[in-house]
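yo

u said u wanted the structure for the complex thing, so here. seqs first:
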Amino acid sequence: MQRPLMRIPYTGPLPPPNTIPRNANTITGAIAALSTFLTAPPSPFLQDGFGDPTSTVILSGAGISVASGLADYRGTKGTYRVNKTYRPIYYHEFLANHEARKRYWARSFLGWTNLHKAKPNVTHYAIKTLGQMGFVRNVITQNVDSFHSIAHPDLPTLELHGFLRALICVTCHRELARDDFQESLARLNPVWAAFLTDAVASGALDTENPDERRARGMKTNPDGDVDLPGAPYHTFRYPPCPHCLANPPISGDGVQSKVDIDHEGAWKSTSTAGILKPSVVMFGESIAPRVKEAAEHVIDGSGRLLILGTSLATYSAWRLARRAKERGMPIGILNLGGVRGEDAFFQDLLVSQQGESGVRIDMGTDKILPDLVDQLKRNGVSDQHRSDPSHAEERSINSRISKDMLS
Ligand SMILES: [Zn+2]
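structre next:
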């Protein structure tokens, strides 16, 4: 039996980025290298797969959402950028501890407005165009902000770590929309709701500049929560799963569970069921086997891997890159700052290669991808990719796979 794949943050040091090919250290050089990467013939080292060897799969991370106003987990030196003492909540802690859940939901309640207002940025729309041009067939993302599916609903996206747009009940596994939950939280926590209204009025949530937002007293992390030192988290209340409240289930060992609520409907700690959690894979939680397999399937059906805005700090993402490397897929990395174990992805490249076998660029995706798309359009290479009918057919198959796996 395979080991479950757990989401664990990596806190080790990251190597300094080593630009490949060497002239990819300017915007012009970087665009040329990526253009070569995307348009090169399939690698002679590519192992047989079932997909199209000319297709690219993108693996994205928090770095591509920075331009949407969401902070990155890590700075360029590998430290937590937003708040050095920030530590994400762990799954076991969330399940076991009512106080930890209050703190989580209080921060999430305040952070949701900001996340909800944030929108996909030029990187997401450049990816959409790369999909329309036939270069990119699939996206695997570690991001939980839903920006990929908003920006390019027709380009299949596999959300490796789930999504914040819904909650899931840990007892009955039914989903609930995050928007509806936000209204329940506001109703149960009027003082917090008033604070949030003030924060919105002060403009702390209006700016997309993390420094300005911080200056106005608010910090947001990529999982959509806000950090407020000294806030009375123990006063925060959250509701149970409405289904488990109405029909308390019988547990696996035949015991009748109970869902207790206070006079206004907030979950009480005497309950034995009905805890809602965000539909994200929390740190310390295992990725569902069907999602892990779907991600591997996407890698095995592609000819090259383009890694965008991630240091591959989580093992679940890093091992997909390793799988691609082991399949002989050329790897491109566009990320500001070091990437976990990146030397291993490029160690056997010829110095003379111009991007066809591998690319490493130490820049932000929003500075490069829109211009890359323009250059590819000018070169007219899209027609050649678009005209192959087998691509369209395969795209539709891939789309079904990704969506089925996640439904
Ligand atoms: Zn439930």
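The chain is about 40% helix and 15% strand. Residues 169, 171-172, 174, 241, 243-244, 274 surround zinc ion (CB under 6 Å).
cya
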